[in-house]
Amino acid sequence: MKLSVIIVSYKVPYFLEQTLLSVQKAAQRVETEVIVVDNNSKDNSVDMVREKFSWVKLIANTDNTGFATANNQGIELATGEYILFLNPDTVVREDTFEQTVHFMEQYPQYGGLGVKMIDGTGIFLPESKRGFPSPEVAFYKTFGLSKLFPKSKRFNRYHLGYLDKDKNHDIDVLSGAFMLIPRKVLDEIGYWDEAFFMYGEDIDLSYRIIKGGYKNYYYADTTIIHYKGESTKKGSLNYVKTFYEAMIIFTQKHFQGSKAGLFVLMLQFAIYFRAFLTLLSNFIKNSSLFVLDALVVYGGLIVIKDIWAHIRFQEASYYDTNPTLMYFNFPFYILMWIGAIYLRGGYDKHARTTHVLTGALLGTVCITSIYALFPQELRSSRMLILLGTLWTIIGAYLNRSLVSLLQHNTIFWSTSQQRNVVIIGDGHESRRVLNLLHEAHVDFNFIGKIGTSTSNLEDSLGAIKDLDALTHFYKVNELIFCGKNISFEQIIHWMTRLGPGMNYKIVPKNSTYIIGSNSKNSAGDLYAVDISFNIANSIQQRNKQLLDIVYSLLLFVLSPLLVLFMKNRMGFLKNIALVLARKKTWVGYVPSSKNLDLPKLLTAVLTPIDTLKIKPTEEQTLHRINLFYAKDYTSSADFSIIIQALRDLGRQEVPTYVTPC
């Protein structure tokens, strides 16, 4: 056997399917065996591999052994002269295996090879080529100098930013996403170090390759897609902690003496320093608009009170004798307005003018409702509340226009970008993909299809060779590639050529999933399966969380009466506490192995099935019930289920309805 491809998989079934399809095509040019090691994904990954890729050697672990251990399991099973460690969220070109194996055969001095990688938006991933994390290199990375001077040979040795990404180079560190190593080299230097659970193990193996007298190589003549690049995780505190702890393991293993001790201390400091920066960055990113709105509204209220005092009492300083107005009333009003705008979705990524307007009005209703409960000395003019409402709407709109202008060069923040979609594929397959979009109720503007063959362009906008001109002319912003009709080499070529200004999606052959990656920095958007779930809407999610709290407080107040009707009285009180602690939700999914395909929800007390007299027992039926609950979710649906299944609110575990085989 010439090549063994080892893929360690964990909870990425849609990516894995596409990876295996690309591997299957690339393997036609090189004698290849494929080994998938699943680290207890608990989804349909294992079943999918068995059903669709029976030729794959599958190891299904019963727990998550970690990346290094799983790779070693694959090595033990491998028989290839060369071993490729490949991530399950990658797409390789048809010629990738042929080119890279041929290169390694020509140059035996190289013990490891990596390739050029792009993310799902066509952007080059800098982790394709890296240098060893010496104390100096780690210092520059920790304190952001490598990012500040990305092309500097001194400051950016970690990502070797001074080396041309489109040229081949000797490098220090290979990426574990694509690492090709001769079997004889692994037998000489040892396998993956299982002390590393995640991150750092590829650095360690690369270091041992060089210590063994070989070189590592960055091969830019072929490109792969790596959807979940390293950059997707950097906003996570867990990433910071895990990454630098892996660096400490690497340092303690390969450095000695006082130099090693100093390096470890620096890395330990880096954990807290980078964690602080991550928290600060996330806080600024998530709260800046809240703060800006609060300051603008507060400043506006100060001006409004003086203007109204002048109009109403002919004395601009009339309210200055009442300090509670400035230090109690105004902050309270702002809290109500901003809180209501938040609940209505006014701070979401795709907020609309109606969200701000209805949020401000809702806040005003809350203020006036509570206003009557204030003691006389805390009651200010109702006109200040009404004028404040108007200013809140105007100020919030202007703030978002300013932010939109700075970020997107347009003041029209409330106008959603229309999805101008072009499907690239032939005849039947392009129609199948179009039907998938319609069945998923996706809001899009279908421009047309582009043929992949010049001999069959009937009803097409044109041929794929003119894709750049066609996308410009028709103002296309989303391309969907039919994997059955177009090679992965062409897909990667066009993603690289058109760049990140376009959204890219791929429909694998015979698949019902549309896979893409529109945001490399958002872990929640690493792949897009275009099904519209109402429960995934951020406003609905917040409403569900808020109503969980409201229901819990109401049930607690009524608990002396309600416990008389409960099947499990102590369980009822315990569930109230668990829902308030965000450990459970009052209504959620029926237990099913297919729930991982749906938007995530907390463990449920009740489910839609509790309203049915006859309980279905087939897995597919249960999944459909969950699917429709998520797709058509409304707050009233939860309320109805709670009322109908009131006696079961003390239940500690939802019954499993699936009939045993």
Automatic annotation (TrEMBL):
Domain Glycosyltransferase 2-like residues, every copy: 4-189
GO MF entries: transferase activity
Organism field: uncultured Aureispira sp
Keywords annotated in UniProt: Membrane, Transferase, Transmembrane, Transmembrane helix
Superkingdom field: Bacteria
InterPro entries: Glyco_trans_2-like, Nucleotide-diphossugar_trans
The protein's name: Glycosyl transferase, group 2 family protein
Pfam families recorded: Glycos_transf_2
TM spans (from-to): 260-280, 287-304, 324-343, 355-374, 380-398, 546-566
